[in-house]
Amino acid sequence: MFIRFCFVFLGVNQSLFFMKNTTLKQLFMLTVTLFVTSVYAQTARESYLPTEVEKVLEKVQSVSNMAEREPTNLLSKEEKQILKNYYQSSEISNSTFRATGDVYALDVRNGGVYGSFPLTGPFNISNIATIPNDIYASDFDVTGTLYALETTNANLLSIDPDTGAITVVAPLTGAAAGVTYSGLSWNKTNSTMYALTTDGTTTNLYTLNLSTGALTLVGPTGTTLGIWIAIDNNGIIYMADIGNDNFYTLNPSTGAATLVGPLGVDISFAQEADVDPVSNTLYMAGYIGGGVNNIYTVDVSTGTATAVGTVNSNNAELGMFTIDGPIGIDNNFVCDDAITIGLGIINSNGPSNSSTGASNVCLTGATNAEWYRYTATNSGDLTITSDLASNSGIDTRVSVYNNDCMNLTCIASDDNSGANNTSTLVIPVVSGTTYLIEWDDANDAAAFDFELSLLISCPDPVNFVAGTITDTSATFSWDAVTGASNGYIFSVFNAGDDPLTDTPVYTENIASGTLTATATPLMAQTMYDAYITADCDTNGLSNAISLTFETDIAPPVCGGTYADLGGATGPYLPNENTITTITPDNPGDVVTVTFTYVDIESSTGTGTQDGCWDFLTVYNGPDTSYPVLAQTLCGEESGDGGVPSVGSSLLSIGMSFTSTDASGALTFVFTSDTSIQETGWLADVTCGPPPSCVTPGTFTNTATTDTTATYAWDETANASNGYVFSVFNNGDDPQIATPVYTENVPFGTNTATATGLMAATTYDAYIMADCDTAGMSATDLDTFTTEAAPPVCGGTFVDSGGVSGNYAVNESTTTTITPDVAGEYVTITFTYVDIESATGTGTQDGCWDYLTIYDGPDATFPVLAQTLCGEESGDGGVPSVATSLLSVGDAFTSSDASGALTMVFTSDGSVTETGWIANVTCGALSVDEFSATQFNYYPNPTTGLLHVNAKQNIDSIEVINMLGQKVMDLSPKTMEVTLDFSSLSQGAYFLRSAVNGNITTHKIIKR
């Protein structure tokens, strides 16, 4: 629920502050900004995170959020994938686990999806309703009422678990205004609901009146950011604090926290936890960031959290995580007041009343009792047992009767068949028949739990699976059921239909001995529910076993549409490797596919392949052994506009591919990764005679400079007049605009170079074959960008991304700028700065990416600036080391005899920014500069003292060793100063001095 702003320094993370709703590297202001400081405790594993993971977590933790969901678009797709890859591979336990019950959950990340999933997994929310309220704490009380705390409006809510309907019970009172309601848990040992609040500085424990909403302070926990509480069957109160990721117990009388240990996981934003009332196991819904989440079991003796699975395949952030436990029963002390129950675990308050309701029909010697009524839904063997782990030291006794309180007939009874004086009874029941169950006080009157389970006489079919599914049919199979003498009932309904009231789209009675069925005809790309029921004649019907399936998309045909597996509206699937071949209906025709909608996940980095995370590959023929028309295609023109980092991989609306193979066929292979599925593509499929003049294939940019671009293409056999190669300004209409370059290329030559282009400019290149009497072919288009011009006097010095793009990952780029005229000196003045900085150490001195500037023609010369970064022209980020800050207006002038400056840019493997722009000027040093100051120093080399003088006051003077470390730093403000080198090691040093605002660097040798 909370998020830290973490400052990483020498392996220690400190929470600096937190506040609501932030976006990437930029924090929105709260009405009240709360500052929090706490030491961040981690396990050894978390202390040695991979650099790329640490960087993403640093961004996550730069958002200090008050118990609310993660801000939208905080992380890029690449950063989300980094978290998913790391936490899935390193956190998920391979051990098995046992759990019972259902979990009611609210996903605050995806529009407030409310629903449930089994605690045994898989943890995929079955949608019930949408709850937009900002809820981050919930629990059931003893009556089975689901309560929740709403933070913004400070209300106590009740929620119908089955419908999601919300009722405002009362306003919350007793806590300070503006706090976050972060925890809620029922204590069964004293029948009290406890609540937790935090304001980012103080976390308080309260008791809560469920009728009035009044909070009564128990006391402060002594921690800053308590994120959830959960109370076990013994009344022990557990708490996690997101400020330090530690696990605590709380004193129920004072609220004081006692440290148990670290959770061992970096949790951020919305969190919740609950105790399974049957197994007494503590579960936590832990959220990392970027959609990455896990369900954890927590070892209450150490605090260690062990991941057991993800929610919604790592795309959920739970504000509610409440386990549906046993429901308390009361006021059923005489037979006429018997309470109707179903299968499952029931929590009895015990026959401790004085109603003298015991029947003494099956068993004698009892005074009081509790009564229940059960109606069998199927025929079979009903097991009634109090032999449960939650019962300790309880001596129970049970009897079962016919459903007539006035004329009770004993069916069966048991005293001590279960372990430790508990009771276990198994009786045959008939579907539709009602039975009375009596628990009496002959041995014990204490509260206890009991469970009803039914072994149906007509067993359920097992291994009900779907086989071959096409666009119009689906085949199913199952295992034989012993006793299914009348066979099986197989039905298919539209997904979500009620099989008891709705009409099936297909139904069939299957004879005994037949274990397969095929539903047909079905609609293409449609969700259905299939059911199989065994018919055991006099033993009745089994339960109806169901599974949900989806028919395939209709295969693309001439005149039809080629779409991804998500169809016209849904996303494609993860981990696809889908091959689609489209063949013309008529021999001699060829297939053309023209894209009308494109949303395939691209990457600003390398991605999975050539700037794409997911991509299409197109083959010119009926399978993948044929030539490749396009190796890697992606783009998000119909989505959020993302484009691949590699220009040749861009797939755009309007692009088309036509087969030139003798078969006329095209083959497409779609490959997707494990995360982030976009909405895919739509393309029109047309078929017809092949063009008489075929467009040249494999039109490829082979080389680009700042002023030229070279292309090559495949030969068109009948292009007797050659080819027309043209280059237009990007976006220009080639039918009406004037090209910036055009050339008629003779047949037999399959390459051309466009010249006279502008640096760092985007163009569209076209190729077209001229087949004489057969006419002109259609054009093929490729978009490219020229390189940035090398920096020269009077020009600009920019990063590799040019004036509009981002620099690249893993750069180590050296640029030297030399004056045109001997005796002049280069000055660079920055006009735009956006180089990735770090709030922690980063890669070097508070920077993830950085410039180093040398005073001379290569990197062996003195360092003018060792580490420079900053994001003044981006989102305002600054490095944690102040001396590393590069700002707009900063200038650097060579003082070397060559007049040159050398810049080395270093970037890491992730998160690139838009870089920098700097003006380059060259000229002679002015009279005011060092040539006129008669700056002198002697002796050099020196064995001890170095004397320095100038004609003007020396403002500052620094001595820097070869490692770039400053070993002396003076501000003499006089024209003479003496430096003592006697304590320094032998070797070379740089003397950097400032006189009247002018800086020069000289090399000094210490002997």
UniProtKB/TrEMBL annotation:
This is CUB domain-containing protein. CDD domains: CUB (cd00041). Pfam families: DUF4394, Por_Secre_tail. Transmembrane segments: none annotated. Keywords: Disulfide bond, Signal. It comes from Xanthomarina gelatinilytica. Residues 793-923 form the CUB domain.
